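Budget justification aside, the reviewers requested a transparent look at the raw inputs and outputs of the sequence design task funded under Objective 1. We therefore reproduce one unedited record. The lines immediately below are the structure tokens for a 946-residue chain.
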């Protein structure tokens, strides 16, 4: 049947072709399949495959083109946007259009250059031969050659100018303005153009300044980076040496000879007695306001000391070490700051620092001090020596000075001048009468032969103006007026009574004065005896001569001293190391910190036991006097009333006082545990104990418990006191034991009070021959009568008092009512405590009855009260123990470290705590060795300089 249908359809298609047939044929050709028979057309398969390949290739090419075009368009738009943003960010350079010439001006300029070239060329071609035609042919040839060279030079310059103009005219960047000098009249500039030019110049100047700052900052950072890299390399090298077990070699800085000598004098500071302080130095002495400080400043070439208007300026010795150096700087011995003496600001700071140190040294009501202020001054051309400026000698002390000021200055001055190797620089004011001098007699008494004294006469300019007889100055400088002798005599001028004058102006004034002075101009005084320059050279020469003559002898003296001290140490402390005060303090500090760390190792049971004992010690008076006894007196055998009163009083106590008392008990327990821990250490040196005790006491006094701990304790204590049910036999027995112990302690105290009131008993009187006073006998009679009365109330009624008084009167004892009531208090308390002890003894076996009644048993309510107190104290002790372990021990250790750091910085306190011959001998040995080592180093350098 299917065959018939296919045949019919095939025949119909052949007969009547239509649009459908055409579409079917096209589909067949394209797909290779027949619409009617669903089978491939054999002849169309290769052609269809080729078409498919071509279509795919065309599609890929089109896709790539679209991608390329789209990327190019998008990239162009993005680039245009970035260019616009960059262009908007550039500064507005429109003002250059007003400054630069336009195209017409450039054309006129070019035309002018061409015209100038033609004119010059014509002159060279025509004028020069006419001029040279009447001359020698050789000159004519030379002129032509010269003209040719000139034409070539002008042509080259013209071409360079045209090329530069073309480049500048077409360049985008702003070009500098070219002025046309060949035009007869330059183009006028408008006001806006001039303003723009000024702004551009200011802008360029600011940019230039910023560039310089950036370069300077970069250079500084580069130098700092190089320094840090160098230090890093050195540290790595030292680390490698330490890992290998070797010590890194320390770089020794080369010091000058005078610096080495000054360090020896620094070691001897405060050691001025005996053979130790006899090294040479220049001591500057003189009357007050004689010009000592000014002379020293002229030698140092800087105004380094503060000045006062008519009052004492120098209040302490100032040791100044002068040495040569590339820069004029000053520096204190205990400071790293260098003061540039060429800057007025640094000079002002230096003077303020000197004044501050002087004022700090004279605290405590003193006017002068013996504490030495050491400083060094280095600079070009300075002499090498050590000078000590002392306070000026006074004849009368004012009311604002200390009572011993005059004597203290004299003793200080004599102490420095008594050194047989000290050079005395005696300063005398030339403008006052010689009879008013106080220092010359003092100098003559210390150096009667004048072998180490140099006399300096100051203010010679004023003396020449005021003195009617100029020969008086000559006699002074010849040593014929003052009753003293000297190695040399000098006359100087150190100022014009103006404190703002510089050293250079003063030196120029001094030289002008000595050149124009009649006295010195006429040759009455030698030229070497005037000016501070000659003075400084003479003093320095004398100083070094004295140093070379005496330093070997001083070194031998220190060697002998060291041998004697070492021998004494070996004989007195044969098995102990030579530890000085600082080393002993550091050892004591290390031991104390180790012992402080042991607080965290204390076991919790030991802490709770100690804390419970401290809590009961601090609260038992409150428990008895504020809770138990008042509640018992108020209740008067009424159990319910007693319990109610106890509840109220316990809560009031917990809310107001118990937490604070607990904190104090915790501090006391911490103190006792720390002290016992120190006492348990066996291997400690007894010399450390004063340091340890002082540090621990100070740390404990500073230690404050955390504030929030009190609130936590209050909550825990209130919760513990609310529980009224004793749950175990052990708790019951512990409460009974606490009650019995507390009652016994309280009754013992009351009985001692009664014994003091009534005197010894019958047995003591007969066996120990004790006797009673009349007052004690009266008290004994009253006590006997009150015990006979047998009242159990805490206070007596009026009838009872009257009855006791009448009974005593019948026996011949006269007392008043208040006397009876005062005696009744300890008698009643003794009786009450005795009954309470009996009740506590009866309650030992009542826990079974108490547990059967579920806490309703009222016979032992006192035991329940003591159990509640004990539970609150046990809870408090546990909380305090946790606070100590977690926080307070660490905070106490931190306080202890702070105290030790403060003690380490206080030499006076260390000297007070670490004393004795052992410490003093070790200190002397250390200082002698240091001085000897520095002296030997100085002598070696001195011999090399020779």
């Amino acid at each position: 049947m299917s065959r018939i249908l296919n045949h019919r359809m095939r025949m119909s298609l052949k007969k009547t072709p239509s649009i459908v047939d055409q579409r079917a044929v096209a589909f067949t050709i394209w797909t290779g399949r027949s619409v009617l028979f669903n089978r491939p057309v054999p002849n169309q398969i290769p052609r269809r495959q080729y078409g498919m390949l071509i279509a795919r290739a065309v599609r890929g090419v089109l896709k790539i083109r679209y991608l390329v075009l789209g990327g190019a368009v998008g990239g162009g738009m993005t680039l245009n946007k970035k260019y616009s943003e960059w262009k908007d960010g550039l500064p507005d350079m429109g003002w250059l259009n007003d400054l630069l010439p336009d195209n017409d001006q450039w054309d006129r300029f070019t035309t002018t250059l061409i015209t100038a070239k033609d004119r010059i060329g014509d002159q060279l071609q025509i004028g020069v031969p006419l001029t040279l035609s009447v001359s020698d042919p050789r000159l004519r040839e030379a002129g032509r050659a010269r003209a040719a060279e000139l034409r070539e030079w002008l042509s080259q310059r013209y071409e360079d100018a045209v090329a530069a103009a073309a480049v500048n005219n077409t360049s985008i960047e702003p070009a500098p303005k070219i002025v046309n000098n060949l035009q007869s009249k330059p183009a006028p500039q408008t006001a806006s153009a001039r303003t723009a030019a000024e702004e551009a110049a200011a802008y360029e100047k600011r940019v230039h300044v910023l560039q310089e700052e950036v370069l300077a900052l970069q250079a500084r950072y580069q130098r700092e980076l190089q320094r840090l890299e160098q230090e890093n390399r050195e540290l790595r090298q030292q680390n490698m040496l330490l890992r290998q077990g070797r010590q890194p070699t320390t770089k020794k800085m080369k010091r000058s000879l005078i610096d080495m000598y000054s360090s020896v004098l620094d070691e001897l500071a405060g050691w001025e007695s005996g053979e130790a302080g006899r090294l040479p130095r220049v001591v500057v002495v003189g009357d007050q306001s004689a010009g000592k400080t000014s002379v020293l400043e002229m030698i140092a070439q800087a105004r380094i000391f503060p000045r006062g208007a008519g009052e004492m300026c120098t209040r302490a010795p100032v040791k100044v070490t002068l040495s040569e150096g590339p820069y004029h700087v000053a520096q204190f011995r205990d400071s790293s700051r260098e003061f540039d003496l060429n800057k007025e600001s640094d000079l002002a700071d230096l003077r303020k620092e000197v004044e501050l140190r002087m004022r700090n040294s004279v605290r405590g009501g003193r006017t002068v001090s013996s504490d030495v202020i050491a400083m060094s001054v280095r600079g070009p051309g300075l002499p090498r020596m050590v000078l000590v400026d002392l306070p000026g000698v006074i004849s009368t002390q004012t009311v604002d000075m200390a009572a011993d000021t005059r004597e203290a200055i004299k003793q200080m001055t004599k102490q420095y001048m008594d050194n047989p190797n000290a050079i005395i620089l005696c300063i005398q004011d030339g403008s006052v009468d010689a009879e008013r001098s106080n220092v010359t007699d003092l100098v003559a008494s210390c150096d009667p032969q004048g072998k180490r004294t140099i006399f300096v006469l100051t203010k010679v300019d004023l003396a020449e103006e005021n003195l009617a007889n100029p020969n008086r100055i000559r006699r002074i400088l010849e040593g014929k007026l003052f009753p003293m002798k000297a190695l040399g005599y000098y006359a100087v001028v150190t100022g014009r009574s103006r404190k703002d004058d510089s050293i250079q102006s003063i030196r120029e004034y001094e030289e002008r004065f000595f050149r124009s002075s009649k006295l010195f101009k006429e040759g009455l005084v030698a030229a070497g005896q005037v000016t501070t320059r000659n003075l400084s050279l003479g003093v320095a020469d004398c100083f070094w001569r004295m140093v070379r003559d005496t330093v070997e002898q001083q070194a031998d003296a220190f060697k002998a001293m060291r041998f004697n001290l070492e021998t004494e140490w070996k004989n007195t402390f044969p098995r102990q190391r030579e530890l000085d005060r600082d080393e002993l303090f550091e050892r004591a500090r290390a031991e104390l910190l180790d012992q402080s760390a042991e607080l965290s190792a204390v076991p919790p049971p030991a802490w709770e036991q100690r804390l419970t004992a401290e809590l009961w010690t601090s609260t038992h008076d409150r428990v008895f006097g504020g809770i138990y006894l008042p509640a018992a007196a108020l209740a008067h055998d009424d159990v319910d009333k007693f319990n109610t009163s106890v509840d109220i009083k316990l809560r009031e106590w917990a809310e107001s006082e118990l937490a604070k008392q607990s904190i104090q008990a915790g501090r006391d327990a911490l103190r006792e545990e720390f002290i016992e821990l120190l006492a348990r250490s066996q291997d400690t040196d007894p010399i450390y104990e004063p340091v340890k005790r002082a540090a621990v006491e100070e740390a404990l006094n500073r230690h404050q418990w955390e504030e929030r701990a009190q609130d936590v304790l209050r909550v825990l204590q209130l919760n513990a006191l609310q529980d009224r049910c004793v749950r175990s036999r052990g708790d019951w027995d512990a409460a009974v034991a606490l009650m019995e112990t507390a009652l016994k302690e309280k009754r013992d105290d009351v009985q001692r009070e009664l014994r003091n009131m009534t005197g010894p008993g019958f047995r003591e009187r007969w066996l120990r021959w004790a006797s009673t006073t009349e007052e004690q006998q009266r008290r004994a009679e009253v006590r006997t009568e009150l015990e006979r009365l047998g009242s159990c109330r805490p206070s007596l009624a009026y009838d009872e008092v009257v009855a006791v008084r009448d009974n005593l009167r019948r026996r011949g004892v006269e007392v008043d009512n208040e006397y009876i009531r005062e005696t009744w208090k300890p008698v009643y308390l003794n009786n009450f405590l005795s009954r309470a002890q009996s009740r506590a003894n009866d309650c030992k076996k009542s826990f079974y009855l108490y547990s059967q009644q579920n806490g309703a048993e009222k016979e032992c309510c006192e035991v329940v009260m003591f159990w509640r107190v004990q539970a609150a104290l046990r809870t408090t002790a546990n909380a305090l123990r946790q606070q100590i372990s977690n926080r307070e021990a660490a905070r106490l250790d931190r306080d202890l470290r702070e105290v030790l750091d403060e003690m380490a910085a206080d030499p006076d306190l260390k000297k007070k705590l670490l004393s004795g011959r052992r410490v003093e001998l070790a200190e002397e040995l250390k200082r002698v060795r240091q001085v000897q080592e520095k002296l030997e180093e100085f002598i070696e350098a001195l011999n090399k300089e020779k």
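The longest strand covers residues 318-324. The chain has a mean pLDDT of 77. Computational costs for records of this kind are itemized in the attached budget.
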